[in-house]
Amino acid sequence: MNYKVMNRNSGLGLLEVVAGIAIILTLSAMAFPRIGRYWQLYELDSATQMLSSNLEVARYSAISRKYNAVAQFYAGASSYEIFEDKNGNGARDSGERSLGSYSLPRRVLFSGASLLGPPANPSGTVADPITFGSDRLTFNPAGKVNSGLGTIYLQNSAGDAAALSFNMASRLKIYRWNKASHTWN
């Protein structure tokens, strides 16, 4: 009788495991910068959309409740709050309802560093990331912006930027900064 001896060692050898790990690490190293870049853009877009939504809620609250609604920005803290302003003094007093307090993502700031503004017709560098007086935007009961024209600039750590700009008709327009051509789109 002929018996064939079968090799029961069907596992991977040390060299094969090391080669597999090296391939995985190489692919990860190539993909990680792209994932990080995507995440930076995502955070900026998310902050822009969240701010836009919150400002629309403030506008509709002012219209429906027939009070001013105020968005107060704290540029140094990368945060803002929105509240009803029944007495029109621009400050949140006792009895005035908060519509929320919000913080920007960690790597997104209120900033206009090295940007041109205003977005609709750039005429110089941005000196103030929130161009509304006292960093306060107020919607009146008709849903109009009391202070007229103004822009809020957001920027991430990679220099990507977005601007939320109000025109004389209190229409909100969102602009994106094109780093390559130094223009707003």
Question: In words, what does this structure look like?
Answer:
The chain is of the alpha+beta class. The protein has a single domain, classed as minor pseudopilin epsh domain (minor pseudopilin epsh fold). It contains 1 helix and 11 strands. The chain has a 5-stranded antiparallel β-sheet. The longest helix is centred in the first third of the chain and has 52 residues, at 14-65. The chain starts with 13 loop residues before the first helix and ends with a strand.
- Per CATH, the architecture is 3-Layer(bab) Sandwich
Oligomer: single chain
Sheet-strand content, in percent, reads: 25-35%
Helix content: 25-40%
Name the shape in a single word. Answer: elongated
- How do the strands line up in the largest sheet? 4-8-9-10-11
Summed over residues and divided by their number, the pLDDT gives a mean of 90
CATH topology: minor pseudopilin epsh fold
The value of Rg in angstroms is 26 Å
- Ranges where pLDDT stays below 50 over 5 or more residues in a row are none
Structural class: alpha+beta
Separate helix tally: 1
Order of helices and strands: HEEEEEEEEEEE
* Level-1 CATH class name: Alpha Beta
Largest sheet: 5 strands, antiparallel
